[in-house]
User: Which sequence fits this backbone?
C-alpha cells in the first residue's frame, strides 16, 4: 500500500514516515503543494495524506487538482481546527479530516477505513458501455461487432486517457488534469493534441463518433465519461 504524505513540516513528515513504514506502508513525501501533485501523477499512491497550509499550492488547491483526474482517498491532517476549514476541504473532495495533534491509533484506523473503501472499487476493474468492454486490470479493450467480439487496439496514450476517464465516471476531468496525467505538468497547454486523441478514441469506441454518447466534451472545461444507466 503506497501512501503520499504532503506536509511542509519536516518533523511531521519524519514522524509519519516512521509510523507508517513500521506498519508496512510504502511512503512517499512532498514538502510543497506542487510537489504533492507531481508525486501523485508520477507514482499513483493508494492514499494521500495532506496538510492544508503548504507553499506553492495550498491544500485546497491540491485537493481540487487531484479530484480533476483521480478518486484516490484524501485524508487531510491539519492543525486548522475551525469547522469552516473542514467544510472547505470536504467540499473540495477530501474524504476525511484529522486535526493535529492526533492519536496514532486513530490516524491508522482512519487510513484503514479509507483504503478498505477504495479496495471495494478496485475489485471491479471491468467497465462496460455500449458494445465495448474495458478490462482495466488486463489493459484490454474488446468490442462486439455483430456476433463477433474483436480486440480494439489502443496506443499507450489513448489507453491512459481512456483509463483516466473510466476511473472517474460521470465526473468532469479537466483538460489540464488529463494533460498532466498523460504528458506531465509542463504540457498543460497542449490541448490540440488532446482533441486529436479523443477523436481517435471516439472512432474506435463510440457507436457514432460524430455524436459521442460516452466520451463527452464539456466545452471550455474538459471531458466526462458518461456510462450507461444502471
Assistant:
Amino acid at each position: 500500500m503506497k501512501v503520499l504524505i504532503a506536509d511542509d513540516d519536516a518533523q511531521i513528515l519524519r514522524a509519519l514516515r516512521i509510523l507508517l513504514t513500521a506498519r508496512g506502508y510504502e511512503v512517499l513525501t512532498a514538502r510543497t503543494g506542487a510537489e504533492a501533485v507531481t508525486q501523485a501523477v508520477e507514482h499513483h499512491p493508494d492514499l494521500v495524506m495532506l496538510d492544508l497550509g503548504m507553499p506553492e499550492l495550498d491544500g485546497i488547491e491540491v485537493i481540487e487538482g487531484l479530484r480533476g483526474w483521480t478518486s484516490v482517498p484524501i485524508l487531510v491532517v491539519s492543525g486548522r481546527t475551525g469547522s469552516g476549514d473542514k467544510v472547505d476541504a470536504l467540499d473540495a473532495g477530501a474524504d476525511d479530516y484529522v486535526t493535529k495533534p492526533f492519536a496514532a491509533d486513530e490516524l491508522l484506523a482512519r487510513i484503514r477505513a479509507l483504503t478498505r473503501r477504495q479496495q471495494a472499487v478496485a475489485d471491479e476493474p471491468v467497465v462496460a458501455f455500449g458494445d465495448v468492454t474495458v478490462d482495466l486490470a488486463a489493459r484490454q479493450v474488446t468490442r462486439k461487432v455483430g456476433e463477433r467480439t474483436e480486440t480494439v487496439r489502443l496506443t499507450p496514450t489513448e489507453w491512459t486517457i481512456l483509463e483516466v476517464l473510466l476511473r472517474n465516471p460521470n465526473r468532469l476531468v479537466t483538460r489540464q488534469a488529463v494533460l498532466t496525467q498523460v504528458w506531465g505538468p509542463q504540457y498543460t497547454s497542449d490541448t490540440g493534441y488532446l482533441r486529436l486523441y479523443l477523436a481517435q478514441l471516439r472512432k474506435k469506441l463510440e457507436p457514432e463518433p460524430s455524436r459521442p454518447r460516452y466520451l463527452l466534451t464539456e466545452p471550455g472545461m474538459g471531458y466526462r465519461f458518461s456510462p450507461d444507466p444502471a
